[in-house]
Amino acid sequence: MTQHVRDVMTTDLMTVEPQASVQAVARMMRDEDIGAVLVTEGGRLRGLVSDRDLVVRAVAEGGDPDRTTVAQACSEDLVTVGPDDDLILAVQVMREHSVRRVPVVDRESHPVGIVAIADLAIERDPGSALGDISAARPNQ
Q1: Span between the terminal Cα atoms of the chain, in Å
Q2: Is 140 part of any domain?
Q3: Strand residues in the chain grouped as ranges (E)
Q4: 45-58: per-residue pLDDT in tens?
Q5: CATH of the domain at 36
Q6: Which residues share a beta bridge with 116?
């Protein structure tokens, strides 16, 4: 039976506008216990900012976290998948582009979900170490 991206994607999305400060996004990530936030403009996907992006592109560069915008720290050259795509395609995209998260967009580039490597581990290999860790309740 073919599995689709929609079967495993997270649909409870956290999004921000490009002008949001990296400090505000870091707080959102902390409060929601997430590692990435989608950057949208006019309802369309513009980028993705991960916790690593905040460290490498903002903090390490000495930027003021209250003045540095998410647009300055986010990844904009994204690969995406659609909700009706085969799950195998999402795995291939992650492997080929060395990414841990792939935004899921509709035909108009509106974000409808996100697939993380942890989602795939839970679904495809629940007994693996990554599957076990990913399925565990987050530390607070």
Answers
A1: 37
A2: no
A3: 15-16, 36-41, 44-50, 101-105, 111-116
A4: 999 999 999 999 98
A5: 3.10.580.10
A6: 101
Number of domains in the chain: 1
- pLDDT 10s digits, 78-101: 999 999 999 999 999 999 999 999
Residue 11's φ and ψ, nearest 5 degrees, are: -105, -10
Residue 58: DSSP 8-state: I
Task: For the chain, list residues with pLDDT below 50.
Answer: 126, 128-136, 138-140
Is residue 31 packed enough to be buried (19+ CB in 10 Å), middle (13-18) or exposed (0-12)?
Answer: exposed
What the block records as the tokens of 124 is 């495809």
Kindly report the number of other CB atoms within 10 A of residue 109's CB atom.
Answer: 14
Enclosing H/E stretch for 124: helix 117-124
Query: How many other C-beta atoms are found inside a 10 Å radius of the C-beta of residue 37?
Result: 27
Give residue 117's identity as a one-letter amino acid code.
I
Q: Which residues contact 53 (CB under 8 A, 6 or more apart)?
A: 73, 74, 75
User: Could you give the C-alpha distances from 58 to 14, 52, 96, in angstroms and in order?
Assistant: 20, 10, 26
